[in-house]
Amino acid sequence: MPFDLAVIDLDNTLYAADSGVFARMDKRMTAFVARELGVEREEADRLRVKYWKEYGTTLRGMMLHHDMEPEAFLHDVHDVDAHQILTIDYALDDALSRLPYHKVIHTNGIREHAERILAALGIAHHFQRIYDIRFNHYIPKPSSETLARLISLEGALPARTLVVDDMADNLQAARELGCKTVHICHEASGEWDYHIPTFHHLPDSLGI
Q: Are the beta carbons of 47 and 33 closer than 8 angstroms?
C-alpha cells in the first residue's frame, strides 16, 4: 500500500533500546523527581514508573499531581550527551533514503533532544518536521487526538499514514485512527501491520 506520510518515533525506535540513551534519561528523571519532591531515590523511582504507566510520561503525572513546571524538567532529563553514545548510522541513513514518503518525527521528548539524536545518527536531513511533547500542550502519546491533529497539519489522511513506534500503546492509538502500524520490537506482540526488530528492516518489509 502506498503512503504519503510516515510518522516516526525517536527514542528506542531509530536507535537500539539497549544503547544507553534512555537509561541515562531514566536516571536523570529519577534524580529530578527526588529533588523536586524532596523524597528518597527509591520513592522517586517508584513515582517515575507509576506516572509513566498511568499517563504516558512521568512529566504528565508530575504536572497533574505536583503542579510542576515542565520546561526545567524536560531540559534536565534530556541532557544526556547523546553524541557520546550514538554514532553515524549509515545503514539507517540508507533505510530512510529508500522510504519515498514525507517523514516527520513524533516524540514524547523535546525538539532539542530530537535534533541532537538525529544529528548524532547523521539522519536529520530525512525529516521535514519534529513534533515534540510541546506540540499539544504537553499531552503525551498515546493520544489519538494529538496524532490526528499532526496528520491533518501535514495534509495527509490516516489511511495513507504509516506510524512507526516501539510502544504498543502508541500504535493502538494510530490503529484506532485507521493508520497502518509498524512495531519496532525483537519479540512480536499485538496484531500490527508490520513487525520488525530494527528500523533498518522497514524498506524490505514494505517491499521497497
A: yes
